[in-house]
Amino acid sequence: MQRLHAWLARLGALLALAGCADGSSPAEGGARDAGPGALDARVEDAADARVHDARASDARAIDDAGMQDARSPDAALADAAATHDAAAPIDAAVFEPLEWESAEITTDDGVILIEKVFYRSEGLRISGQVCRPASAGPHPVQIINHGGFSGLSAWNGGSCANAARAGWVAAESSYRGEDESEGTIEVCLGEVTDVLRMTEIVLAQPYADRARVLMSGGSHGGCITLRAVQRGAPVQAAVDIFGPTDWSAAYAMWRDELAAGSLLSANYQSLMSTLEQATGGTPEEAPDAYAARSPIAFADDLQASATPLLVLQGATDAYVPTPQACALAIAAPPFYSLNVTAAGTVVTTPPLGCEASGIAWQSGPRPTLSWPQSPYLIVYDDVGHGFEGTGTTHLLSDFTAFISAHIAL
Q: Which residues of 40-54 are buried (b: 16+ CB within 10 A; e: fewer)?
């Protein structure tokens, strides 16, 4: 479970690919959807293969099988989030200051600084870390929305430190209920507020460049990223990787797989139990609570957003299947949608799971230096939830190109 929690922690080297033109591809091999350990190992291999030549960043994804205690949503908060004024400081209504409650320097080697920080979000004391160059700046900023519910896997180092050495300010929130943060885990609800609060505090610091801000996240972190954009996150680009968009549909899929005796049944059962704890029941019993966590329920806010957005989806994802991404593209048009084969070519036939979506799949080519459309949906054949599969190279290439096109380094 812990390794699946950390699979996108190594994506720092992949985000780092922004500006990297070596064309190298990640290490490949290993069984597809073989379990949490296999997924994380594949991502670590891919990241380590590129980190030396890359501008580093970080993100993390969901511990799909490790979700745990959560609390019911606050309907009033959900309504406020949907109508939030993007021009105002996040949570201005509760008068929480745009400053760290505490900041402890844990690394200062003359090149980078790493700080363990605490801040307030809806009255809760939330922990996190900021890794940044020692020079004054201002520097480009990465808001990294990790997945899972066990907190940050690489305190005082890892990809966060790599990002800082490459000239970025990297900020990671250990959402409510994780590590030393107060509160309980909510699943793509209060976590979004925690991220928005941290974003505003980071951007209030003199070392941060408000005009060059990237937000990204994978799986659960991808859901958080989408909801943050819908709530007016002050960023210049955002990337969602394999993020759930409709928790009711996800629950139904996991329930069907469980009934069919899937080899991943234990993971699916854990996911279902977590959502039931967080929402107070099944989708049939608590539909509003599931909707409050689902980006698809806020499709109008996504349409209204001017933030350049890239949604990346693997066609062989066993946890967050392609209909999740395709449903969002239908609900919040116009997405510029591409279906990329394992060979890297673009085809106009729909990917597996999206045959009935009605999406107009473009003939390509895949963007390189210029990404004039937004939002984008790109589905990759033979890519699973942990970047396993032969299509991973193409996903990483597009990820890199999109970041480079929108964030000047």
A: bbbbbbbbebbbeeb
Please answer whether residues 211 and 221 qualify as being in contact, where contact means their C-beta atoms are separated by less than 8 angstroms.
Answer: no
Q: Say how far apart CA 387 and CA 217 lie, in whole Å.
A: 14
List, in sequence order, every residue forming a beta bridge with 113; answer none if it has no partner.
108, 132
- The residue behind tokens 């925690």 is 194
Q: Could you tell me if 186 and 209 are in contact, meaning their C-beta atoms sit under 8 angstroms apart?
A: no
Residues 316, 329 contacting (CB under 8 angstroms):
no
pLDDT in tens, 9-63: 445 444 433 333 233 333 223 333 333 333 333 333 333 333 223 333 333 333 3
Instruction: Identify the band that residue 230 occupies on the pLDDT scale cut at 50, 70 and 90.
Output: very high
Q: Distance from CA of residue 242 to its chain's centroid?
A: 8
How remote is the C-alpha of 323 from its chain's centroid?
18
| Alpha helices (H) along 190-264 | 190-203, 220-230, 247-259
Level-2 CATH architecture, domain 2-406:
3-Layer(aba) Sandwich (3.40)
> Strand 112-121 and strand 124-133: pairing?
antiparallel
> What is the biggest distance separating any 2 CA atoms in the chain, rounded to whole angstroms?
57
pLDDT at 158: 81
Q: Are strands 376-380 and 346-347 parallel, antiparallel or unpaired?
A: unpaired
> How far is it, in rounded angstroms, from Cα 184 to Cα 47?
31
User: pTM for this one?
Assistant: 0.81
Q: E-strand spans in 146-279?
A: 169-174, 208-218, 237-241
Distances, alpha carbon 234 to alpha carbons 44, 137, 198, 231, 238, in Å:
30, 19, 11, 9, 10
Hey, what are 154's tokens?
A: 């690489």
Question: Ramachandran region of residue 95, left (φ > 0), alpha (ψ -120 to 50) or beta?
Answer: left
